[in-house]
Fold this sequence. Notes:
Elements: E1 5-6, H1 17-20, H2 24-40, H3 45-52, H4 56-69, E2 74-77, E3 82-85, E4 94-95, H5 97-106, H6 133-145, E5 149-155, E6 159-172, E7 177-183, E8 188-193, E9 197-202, H7 217-220, E10 222-229, H8 236-242, E11 250-255, H9 256-265, E12 268-269, E13 283-285, H10 305-312
Parallel strand pairs: 12-13
Antiparallel strand pairs: 1-4, 2-3, 5-6, 5-9, 6-7, 7-8, 10-11, 10-13
Amino acid sequence: MLFFLTHGRNPSRALSPAVDRLSQAQRERLAYLEMRAYFTGELRRADIEARFGIKPAASSRDLRAYRELEPGNLNYDVAARCYRPTPRFKPIFEFSTDRILAWLLQGFGDGLELRLRRIAPCEGPGNLARPNLTILSTITRAMCASRAVRVSYLSLTSGMTKREVVPVALADNGLRWHVRAFDRQRARFADFVLTRIAKAEELDGTVSEHELLGSDEQWSRVVDLELVPHPGLKQPRAVEADFAMRDGVLRIKARAALAGYVLRRWSVDASPDHHLDPAAHQLWLRNTPTLYGVESAAIAPGVDPSSSERVAA
């Protein structure tokens, strides 16, 4: 897996020529260093040593080299014994949104983008919704530090509003990225579309235990989903082959907070009587009672949103 950053020239900001004089290995370490500080809010020498298997002297040289390249990016927190990004932080490396999101979803990758020619032509549908990385980094830093964030959020129902939220997790629904957060105004956990956050400001102070991920029952609950070919299909074996089903069923587990997104992404007919058009919904949720009490089920195909809300309440 390639890394999550690309080292290139950003037309809006000239890079120091000193970056190009670094070895490929050191550029890679400095890119990791910058990403870690920017998106988690803290960096220790041990992080670099553990990631690249280098000695303390080498990690100290990397930190010194980075601070020489951009003196205003990092401050040392004596109490926490770590480096933190300053309010004036400006990335030296050019961040790729797709790779940052892939890193956040799958864990740390390795290697800078080398811009190698692909072995074979390969294209995908792409992602039309790309979160702002400045906002994303504010969210992820607050998440790592267990802090609240004041956001300006554009809702489909209430327009632009200011809210205080405690971000606890990120989720990809296949089309857009969400942040799972405790909404202090509504006193409940909810999903916020990252691209609808216009501004984000990390707040000082501690958060309460009931605002953290461990208290999110919908996140903690795991739902068993039994997906089968839609009963209306004439050739169900084709769908069985598509999803490598065993005995005609695909069993998956999903968090209750995400189950509705899973069913919607794969156009699964979640109605008890499988009444949706099989041409558009090749899968059917065989064990529909599993959605009892699942709040996200309101967005699943074939589920009556009003009845789902009553169950969730």
